[in-house]
Amino acid sequence: MTSIETTNVPNRAESRVLAIVPAYNEEESLVATIEELQRVAPDIDYVVVNDGSRDGTLALCKASGFNYVSHPTNLGLTGGVQTGMKYALRHGYDMAIQFDADGQHNPAYIASLVADMESTGADIVVGSRFVTEEKPKSLRMLGSNLISGMIKLTTGKRIMDPTSGMRLYNARAVKLFATEDWLSPEPDTLACLIRRGFKVDEVQVSMRERSAGESYLNLSRSISYMANTCMSILFSQWFRS
C-alpha cells in the first residue's frame, strides 16, 4: 500500500463541498488555479493531490500554505482522484468535485453544478461544454461523439460531454470511488454506473485552454484513448465488480 504525505485538515465544519485538484507537474499553473478557486468560490474547501510531481509542485504547495496530500510516486489520474475521494469520505463532505489544476475549469460554475445536484437528486453532475452549444468539428470531437454513442447504446442515456473532467459527485458516489479500486474518472465508469442505477446529469459550462504546460494527450494518444474507452464501454465494464 502506498503511503502519502498530508497536511493538517482545515477546521471548516460549515463546508459541504470539496474540490479535488489532482496535480502532476503543474508548478506553472497551480498557484493561479487555487487562488482563483479561493477567490471565486470561497465556501468550497479544496485539497491538492500532488501526484508524485517531479517539478516544483510540492514545494509550491508547502510554500503557499495550500491544503494538500502528496503521493511519493506518480499513480496517475485515477489514483489521484481516488485519494481525493478518500479524503472527502474521511472528512464527511456531502459532495466532491474533480477540478483540474491547469486552469481549464472555471470555479464560477461550481455553484450551478451543486444547485443541479440538489434539485435533481443526481449522483453525478458533469460540467458539460455541449448541453446548449454544438461541438466543433475536429478529430477529438469525433471521438467524443463516438464515446457518447457507445454510452447511449449500452445505457440508453446520452452524455453530451463524456470526456469532461469537471464532475461533481454526491456522498453516495464519493463513498463508492473511495472504496472501490476499479473505478476511474473516465467515460466507461460513467456508463457502468448509469447501468447500475446512478443518475448522471449535465450542466452547461465553458472551459478555457490550459494556462501552462502541455497535455499528455497528443494525437496518437488521443486516438488510443478513444479506442480503448469505446472497447471498455462495449465489453470490459460489463464484467467489472
UniProtKB/TrEMBL annotation:
Task: Please list the residue ranges annotated as the Glycosyltransferase 2-like domain.
Answer: 20-174
Could you list this entry's UniProt keywords, alphabetically sorted. Transferase
**A Pfam cross-reference name:** Glycos_transf_2
InterPro entries to which the protein is assigned, alphabetical: Glyco_trans_2-like, Glycosyltransferase_2, Nucleotide-diphossugar_trans
Q: Secretion signal: which residues?
A: none
Tell whether Transferase is among the UniProt keywords: yes
Q: What is this protein called?
A: Glycosyl transferase
Q: Which organism is it from?
A: Parolsenella catena
Task: Give the gene that encodes this protein.
Answer: ycbB
